Amino acid sequence: MTLSASKAPTGAALEQLRAEAREAVRSLRAKVARLDDDGIDLILRTARSHYAWQDRPVSRETLEALYDITAAGPTSMNCCPARFFFVETREAKKRLAKALKEKNIDKMMSAPVTVIIAHDLEFWSELPFLFPHEDRRPHFQGKPVHSEVTAFRNGTLQGAYFMIAARALGLDVGAMSGFSNEVVDQEFFGGTTLRSNFLCNLGYADETALFQKLPRLPFDKACKYL
Q: What is the rounded CA–CA span in Å between residue 220 and residue 43?
C-alpha cells in the first residue's frame, strides 16, 4: 500500500526543523563520542554468524524495535526499498525450505525466525511520502534497469543495517545465500514487484556450533590511499 504524500515544510518551519536536527546531532555527540570497544565487538569485531539456535522465541516487540532501528539507516533519496518478511510458522518455513540447499534447511528450520530480506522494484512509488520536498519519481518511473540497481543496492545496505541492529539488541544472526532467489520469489512474491535478496536466520544462538573465526584481509591488502 502506497503511503500518502507528506507536505514538505517550508520557510520558518523548515528552518526550525533543520535547527532542531543539527542540535540533536550535536547533543548526541557531546554525550557519546564513539562506541566503546565492547559495543564495537558486539556488533562487528568479534560478532559471529551463527548456525545453531536455542529454543527461545523472539518477541514481536523486539522484531518491531529491530525494524525501527534498521529504518533509521540512510538510503539514497531516502528511498527505503527493503522489505522484511519474518518467517516464523512451521508451514511458512516448509514453503521456504523448497528454495534452500539441503545443508541450509536444518539451520533455517531450527531458527526462531528466518527473515526474507527483499526489495521492491517500485520503491519509487513511495517517494512522495519518503522524499516530500521534491518529486523524484520521474528518475525511476519507466526506467526498470535503473530502478532495479537502486533497489538492490539500497536494499542490501538496509539488510546490513538490519544485521547490525539485531546484534545491538542482543540477538544473533546467520545470513544465508545458499538458496534459489527464483523459487523464493515464485513462492512468496508471485505477481508482485518484490524480489528476494538474501535470507537471515535470527534468534539466540547455541554457540556450541561455532568454529574458529576465519581471517580477514589486512588493511594494506584491501585498502589504498589515493
A: 24
